[in-house]
Amino acid sequence: MATTLSLMFVDWKSRDGNAAEGSLDGVTVRIAGRLGTTILDGSAPVFNSPAFTPPLPASDMIEIVGEPDNNEFTVDFLGAMVQDPVFHLGSLGSTLTFPAGTPVTRLSGDTGTNGGPRDFKVVDNQVIGKPFQPPPGEPTDSSGSVRLPGKFNSITFNLKPNFVGGSNVDGVALQIGGTVLQIPFTDWKSRDGNAAEGSLDGVTVRIAGRLGTTILDGSAPVFNSPAFTPPLPASDMIEIVGEPDNNEFTVDFLGAMVQDPVFHLGSLGSTLTFPAGTPVTPLSGDTGTNGGPRDFKAEDNQVIGKPFQPPPGEPTDSSGSVRLPGKFNSITFNLKPNFVGGSNVDGVALQIGGVRS
To answer: Could you tell me the pTM of the whole model?
Structure first.
């Protein structure tokens, strides 16, 4: 991992097929898409040239592979936002396209007179490299660095070669840097019957629905485990209560939008259902072989917990974290227990994080 000023780059740790995982200033980073060569021991010299800002004398490297089908890639920063991420792109003979409207700033790169042999360009939401086969010993294609201004916890892009013939495949050396911003969580301040109110990143938050226990003094340890991303050593907590009637809850962010809200759900023995079409991204959670006793799952617009009564001293039911990609000023969901008998009531520990948009 390399550090220049406050900008850090990913320490890539593992590769499993077409996915790789690493750490950026303590935050887990995952990339998925067609991958080629990976260098995980910090020995790659490819980014040590003036084409890159900053140059990295030695670094990890992930090779992303472009094909005529315009391969898609996703980069996730789990449990945090990254400010102004930087992409180092080495030997780019393709066009890398971010989603429409994504601002892209060129920091540095190969140049050539009138679009010379290795010209590295940015046009709107695209980074455009030129395929070039140089004399032996010289670098191929285009290289350079771009920055995406803003705060991100997920980035998607496509990669398509700018040539035909040969293998029709373009391997591009990638390294990613940025400044990590920890996600704030709600400071719950008051409870009045089946409603509670708090503050998230300066935004007033209200939740309404059947509520149980509330802890408003920041002393709840329930979210301090690897099942949650990020874990919270001590926090406020709102208990939401599921019943067979499929209780409905509403969370309102007053006067502002909240980007990519995160739900920590502790002791979930119910199914939590968001409105149809709501995308839900699992961040972390309890796992079990073949759906073991505390398996925590997200499928489509639902988060599914398993009721489980463990030996004394162990946590009950399922726990984990999910993210709702997008900007929200209100979120509704329903909660229905996945068991019958007993009290038919399921108390679930809830905490909500996110960044004001």
So the answer is: 0.78
